[in-house]
Amino acid sequence: MRDPTRLRHHPQGMTRRDLLRRGGILLGAGVTAPWLAACTSDSTGDEEQQQNEDRPNELNMGLANAFVSYNPALSPQLASLTVIRHVFEPLVRYNPVSQALEPWMIQEFPTRTGPDTFEATLLPGLTFHDGSPVTAGDVVFTIEYMQDPENGAFLGPFLNPVERVATQGDNTLIFTLVQEYAAFPSTLSIPYIIPEAIFTAQGNETFQTAPVGSGPYVFGDTNPGLSVTLERYEGYEGRAEASLDTILLEYIVEGSTREVELIAGELDIIDQVPYRDLETLGTQEGIETGFTLGQRHMVLETNHVSGPFADQRVRQALLYGIDRQAIIDTVFQGQYGAICDSILPMTDPFYVEPSTIYRPDPERARSLLADAGHPDGLNFELLLSTIPWITEAGTLMKDQLAQVGMNAEIRLTETEAGYGIVATTEYDTYVAYGVESALGADPDVIYRVFNYGSSREGFYGSNTPEEQEYDAFVDEGLLAATDEDRRAAYAQAQEIMSSTVMNNFPLIFAANLGAWADYVQGYTPPISDVPDFSVVSVT
């Protein structure tokens, strides 16, 4: 196992990593690329060959997001999900390569045994990390735990179409549905199976800090919030084909610091490479780079309860006052972003272009403002996440909106703190980013997870008749009998989201940029921002 403290020491007592981190912190926007250009390797061919022979079968990744907790029912944060997806497993998994669902902990997709009743059998030989067998009873426990609203499971309501789960012996599951629906297999990708006996004995407070699952990796040493070590589970009998012995995941907030540590060999993979740096970083000896334009998107939150943005016309004016293509050309280097007209990307099989789309129209923006009672314009606060590309994009928005009389005063906040402010409804606008597909690839997850029903009302404080109609279309999409019917229902839901400028409103799809050492094989920046290390190896 790699010891994160096993570093060469500077003569003055400062470690090599201390120097790198200090240097990285000093690298501000606009000076990272020159620093990278000056970073070159002086290793000889013989030295590199010896390094390859001596390289341990382990991987160290620098993440841009902090870890929070690891109960798979309660933890939607990206860094935590990276841990959860390797420690736990679902019954059905979405394969991002084939973009299709596949049975995972079950032998095959559930088969019909009666009206609204389906049966599935677990794979043989599955065990939790303490060696105890995975049983159908653990699946029932997990689903019932998530469905109980008192437990606060983030995705629990997504399982409501499953009326009941029963066991038949140790390995067979009987699912009774409220009604048969096309999305049922996707529903089984939501719960990551928890060992009933261990969870019951420990309780959530202990379990979420030292989780036990049945996945290919065991939760190991951790520095809470900052790092997690995963060790390969030697007793694993599932479908993953993990080759790495050890994975060390570290939260490193500064993008420039992650870059410098990658070049210095302290990290093997980094995520969220600054857009301005990808090309230069790719010229460094021994470094590979790439990007995936998936479902990560910059989102707009607006106060629907009070203040000027409670008026739909003001929200629409804001969108007509923004030139998103100009932001893409500047912040995303013209190639690492795309305008969102739907919360689904155009490549999604359920995508339908809405009739309401927004392109720069200053005259229309001013007219809408005047109709809303602001003929001389308005002043408002623009809350921005401190993530550099969000801050840069928000600064451009401020300049663009000033041209239509919308005068923004920028306030910066850490991302999670910003959502805390949004939850108080004491704000005007907030720009951050989201990746709903990290929680599931089905459109039901995308449309339901943040902007639906009681979740929306509880978080945003908003429940208008139009939003209730949106909820009805989302429900219709989930329970539809065919994919075509689902597509039609989601198109209606999207039309309401677009025309009313609902919250969690997508502005720009932002590519996921990554960089990695050339000895890392099988890695590409993931569509969902959550990597799959079971297909990654080092040579």
Describe the structure.
The chain is an alpha+beta fold. 33% of the residues lie in helices and 21% in strands. It folds into three domains: 161 residues, D-Maltodextrin-Binding Protein, domain 2 (3-Layer(aba) Sandwich), CATH 3.40.190; 122 residues, Dipeptide-binding Protein, Domain 1 (Dipeptide-binding Protein, domain 1, Alpha-Beta Complex), CATH 3.90.76.10; 214 residues, Roll (Dipeptide-binding Protein, domain 3), CATH 3.10.105. A hairpin with a 4-residue loop joins strand 2 and strand 3. It is globular. It starts with 15 loop residues before the first helix and ends with a strand.
* Unreliable spans: 1-35
Domain count: 3
What is the count of helical runs? 19
**What Rg, in angstroms, do the CA atoms define?**
24 Å
Helix content: 25-40%
- The CATH topology label of the largest domain is Dipeptide-binding Protein, domain 3
- In spatial order, strands of the major sheet run 8-9-10-1-11-19-12
What is the straight-line distance between the termini?
17 Å
What class would the helix/strand composition place it in?
A: alpha+beta
CATH class of the largest domain: Alpha Beta
Q: Which geometry do the CA atoms define?
A: globular
Q: Tell me the major beta sheet.
A: 7 strands, mixed
Mean pLDDT: 89
Percent in strands: 15-25%
Task: Identify the CATH homologous superfamily of the largest domain.
Answer: Dipeptide-binding Protein, Domain 3
Counted beta strands: 21
CATH architecture of the largest domain: Roll
